[in-house]
Sequence to fold (992 residues):
Amino acid sequence: MRSGRWMHATKMRVRALFYRAAVDCELEDELAYHVAMKTEENVARGMSRDEARRAALIDSGGIELAKENCRETRGVNWIHDVGRDVRYGLRQLRRSPGLAAAIIVTLMLGIAATTSIFTIVYATLLHALPYPEADRVVRIHDVRLQGSSTGGLVSVPRFFDLTARSKSFASVGFFCFEDTTLITGARLPVAVRGACANAGFWKVFEVNPLLGRTFNEKDDQPNVPMVAVLSYGAWQRIFNGDPDVIGRQVTIEQQSTAIIGVMPKDFDVPAGIDLWRPAQFASGSWTWRGEGSRFINVVARLAPSVSLASAESDMRRIGEELRHEYADTDGTWQFEVIGIRDALYGELRPAILVLFTASGFVLLVACINVANLLLARAAVREREVALRRALGASERRIRLQFLTEGALLATSGGIAGLGLTFLLVRTMAAKLPGRLGSNGIVQMNWPIVGFAFGLAVACGIVFGLAPAIRNRDAALNIGLKQGGMQPSGEAVGWGRNIFVSIQVALSLVLLVGATLLGESLWKLVKSPLGFVPERVLTFRLVLPWGARPDVARNFYADVQQRLEALPGVIAVGQTSALPTEDWHLRATFDADWLPQTDHHDAVNAEIRSISGDFLGALATPLLSGRQLTAGDGISKPQRVMVNRTFAQQYLPGGSIIGRHLADATGPLEIVGVISDVRGTGGSIAGKVGPEVYFSTDGIHPVTRRSFVVRSQVPPEQLIQSVREQVHQVDPQQAVADVAMMDELLDKAVAQPRFNTALIVVFAVLTLLLACVGIYGVAAWVVAKRFREIGVRMALGATRGQILLLFLSRALKASIVGIIAGIAAAFPLTYFLRSQLYGVTAGNPWVYAVSIPVLLLPVLIATLRPALQAASINPVEALRTE
Amino acid sequence: MSKPSDLVQGTLDLLLLKILALEPMNGFAISQRLKQVSGDVLQVSDGSLYPALHKLENEGWITAEWKTTENNRRAKFYSLTRPGRKQMEKEANNWGRLSAAISQVVRLQEV
Fold:
């Protein structure tokens, strides 16, 4: 029975909602019948028809009110109310399109700024990584207790040790990079970026392949048939997405390899890899643990119910054990465990959070502007609200109407902001620096839309409630009177002044941040690089691992000669790793001028190998001595060069030419000192450390070399000729990673440049919005106190005094804002310090620059209304009501 | 004469349900009948009568139908539903208990 009643009630509601006209008609008829019957009664009593009807209506006691109350009982009134409010709100907005446009544009900018940065925040810090339970996957780094490490790389013996001794991991894997050549069928060799991994690598990530299978322990033994797993990108690019690629035989590293699997599109560990091959390392055959043995990246998955903290202490224990067991090689090393999200984005996190905060400032300033506009309009609509109240509108209805209008504006602003964000992401996402620019990392998706929507809702609520609360206390009669008399005290509530101060403070903080970052970027770009990157072509040639030494030497020498002979080429050099390349190799040496101790290495330096006219190609000055030549790699003693930092650190004030270093192979004679080259090891912001340069053509020639070609003609024109020459020397060889040196350098500063550009944009935007807001408030104050100005002038105030009066009033809030801004900027810019280069955050000069830059537009914004105030005709002002 | 506005809303509902329990009728007739039965004591203003009727209809205690009256006018006739009848009995019981309690208190002798 209850359900029958409920169904009936629902039927009534639906009817009331959708057939409103019919239901209303019925109501009319019902009440009309009642009045008609009453009229008949009165006529029967002897009144005239007109009198009867009038008496009947009076008797009925408020037909309209009865109708209203009947409507209220229907229970769907609120839906109609909202609909009516929305239509009314739209009409209001259409009546003042300028105001509506101003509000929507301001909101659009604020919401777009915050949402755009949120896409980055989401992509790096919140979005689930594409492997299950990603928060249990960790990177294990090998870190020197004191001094420079090798970018977290681990040596193979230590890997086997930690795998055997640790209790915290369900699986441990490693990978290392190899640049290799892939030949399929009769096609030309393709340079690919590959990774060697062990079987455990796949168990760490637990991602199923798209096609086929990944390799297991059986494939990972020495001397078994070689297999490879392709990445999605390589599968599309090289094999055109052929579904029959599984089982195909290709040649990699001059070895016949079967393709056994393809990974799904979003599996990207390590980033940019084309294929994985089993490393086929046997634990017994890796014994060398010294410097220079570190080249693999270790990953692991925590065992169930093991926490990161206990894994860390476990690894500390193992590190301790190894330090004792192998004191001379492992004595200064320990293990570090880092969650994989931190390893990927840990360095970016401070920058991203700074940008996100800055975008939040933009939104706040925008919202304050919108709130000011709405408050000003609410003041204008006091009459309307008072009228509504007098006609019997409840508080709830009035609040609902303001809320609806606020929601309308916020929704429009939110949609516009989302649209702008979409546009920005579409055009700019690929240009983001570093890993962020990779395909598909930063993109629009539903959480982003939800975030924008949430912002819009929050704004809508604030905008809706503020005017309603403000008007609640307005006494009815004051509002209804024409141009209600305002008390001539402080017409601008303290609320408005606080708004102005907040806006100015936020603008100042952003300006200070922008100045710091800008100066830092300038110093970074302008600091001497140690080489000239313009007009330099680079590319890489990688020979197979087992190539014979004389074959390797001849190959590279041949290529060197041919390239030098090309027209337009000034110099050609070779190196094991280019500046700005993320490549680490360190070694320790004894020095013949330094005392030898048992447990302390005399010299610890980064190692590079060079040949050809490396110095000429990079235009790096030779400071003393001579450059390495062809025979220096195999001479006795072997000859090396060092860089300036090495000379200053290990033999300050002395002549290092002719001195000898010593490593396991024997004495090394130092024949030259070159200028410091920035970017060794990847970042050009890092301090340059001591470096030792060997010849690439030693007893074991380097088989992975980057060529550096300086040319008179634009280097792009040489690419084709270079490929032809290399092809003529060895048709099985592919030219990899062709890039201009200045492009590589550009990429290296891309991150700081992006940060700075964005903060500058935000600072300018905030300042602009703040000035608009300040102008608006100042103009409104002048308009409100029109009469007061007239009175003052009539009492003898000069125009100058009026000008000063309004200027000082308007600037007071701004000055408070500046002071607050300075106070806030000190702690906030502390968070910037990881992004700064050559600049300290507390630098007072920065404030000396930012404050005038801030004050000038603010002054202009307050000046115009003040000038208007000063030019008022006092007679008009007094006459105006 | 006690004005109908002094009545609690629930009491008005009870009166309407009871009148409709006797026979279906339209709003005007209900107000007439109420006056008649109570000897002119209870007069409901239209501002209260029709909203109360509509509320009862929305809740499902009574149902409505448009019919033609004797003098050829169309009017909306309400009648009690089965759940409405149960509700009326429940409210009548409540009222009985309430009025008995009030009577008890009123009859107390002043000392």
